[in-house]
Amino acid sequence: MSSQEIPEENLPAAQDDAHDAHGAVKVADEKNPFADPGLPPHEHRIQDIDERAAKRSERTVALLFTVSMLATVGFIASYLVIDVDKSIYVWPIGHISALNFALGMTLGLSLFCIGAGAVHWARTLMSDVEVADERHPIEAAPEVKAKVLADFKAGAEESVIGRRKLIRTTMFGALALFPLSGVFLLGGLGPAPGTKLRHTTWAKGKKLVNMNTNEPLRASDVAVGSLTFAMPDGLSEHDHDFQKNIAKDALMIVRIQPDDIKDKRELEWSHEGIVAFSKICTHVGCPISLYEQQTHHVLCPCHQSTFDLADGGRVIFGPAGHALPQLRITVGEDGYLEAVSDFEEPVGPAFWERG
């Protein structure tokens, strides 16, 4: 802004000192060609001189905060009421999730109204007088601390938060309710697993079914040194929850000479050297598929955890934290291999409650 655009009464007097105490140039000269024109005259807003206009602004701000509160309540209600599988048509986007649309709209409206209310409050009701603050030393002298405290008190008074109780109440209400949206979002992580991680669909009498042929396995179908993958009878790839179940139910079936089995319990839980171990790596849950028949070691291809199937499935290399769980098997009256019970320990990677 040039000095010609400043009202004459605001221009510095010619007789003033060329420099103030802090070096601000009042009058241009050859050494300092840029003069400080000063601040333009303050123009009062309508809210500063008309209390009715100030009341209207106060009600507008309060309305925005109230809408934010209602939007937050709508967010929570949408999360609790709208079915996760329901879809709606929204032009021009097309078919979208009704729940996601409702959550996004209500959360966005809640945030927007808090921001818009704060901006309108600052622009219409808080003090807008420009203040020139002189430079001061960086160190916090006692005088500076006293000034900061005084400025804070002055700012609190100029914000009119003490006098405008309606704004204060609705603002606190909007800010207090909004965090509830985040609390309810935690529910989107899914229901608590309960004991699901400790159990599979294996149970007493469940037949072992070859995953390649979908036929029940007989002891004679498993040759020494071979590796067969099995799943429980009744589980089908066409089931809605097949992937969820097979991630815990998949088995590795290996036949080892009984004299080569080192672990006593493993031998007791086998049938004529046929052992059944979980196919799910105990590191991060990758499917194990690499078998070395001479050593009876199996290798997880993801992070190279190696397990000894002749010694209780214990870890002999890699980051896995515990041995592969073994499923106790026997032969039923019809000659097919079947489970004696579910796994005695959880399948897959460790989890917090595992112990």
UniProtKB/TrEMBL annotation:
SUPFAM superfamilies: ISP domain. Residues 1-43 are annotated as: Disordered. The chain crosses the membrane at residues 61-82, 88-119, 171-190. One of its GO terms (molecular function) is oxidoreductase activity, acting on paired donors, with incorporation or reduction of molecular oxygen. Keywords: 2Fe-2S, Cell membrane, Disulfide bond, Electron transport, Iron, Iron-sulfur, Membrane, Metal-binding, Oxidoreductase, Respiratory chain, Transmembrane, Transmembrane helix, Transport. The keyword Hydrolase does not apply. Its main location: membrane. It is found in: Cell membrane. Residues 16-33 have a biased composition (Basic and acidic residues). GO terms for cellular component: plasma membrane. Its cofactor is [2Fe-2S] cluster. Residues 243-338 form the Rieske domain. It is a multi-pass membrane protein. PANTHER family: CYTOCHROME B-C1 COMPLEX SUBUNIT RIESKE, MITOCHONDRIAL (PTHR10134). Iron-sulfur subunit of the cytochrome bc1 complex, an essential component of the respiratory electron transport chain required for ATP synthesis. The bc1 complex catalyzes the oxidation of menaquinol and the reduction of cytochrome c in the respiratory chain. The bc1 complex operates through a Q-cycle mechanism that couples electron transfer to generation of the proton gradient that drives ATP synthesis. Belongs to the Rieske iron-sulfur protein family. The cytochrome bc1 complex is composed of a cytochrome b (QcrB), the Rieske iron-sulfur protein (QcrA) and a diheme cytochrome c (QcrC) subunit. This is Cytochrome bc1 complex Rieske iron-sulfur subunit. It comes from Streptomyces phaeolivaceus. The lineage of its organism: Bacteria, Bacillati, Actinomycetota, Actinomycetes, Kitasatosporales.
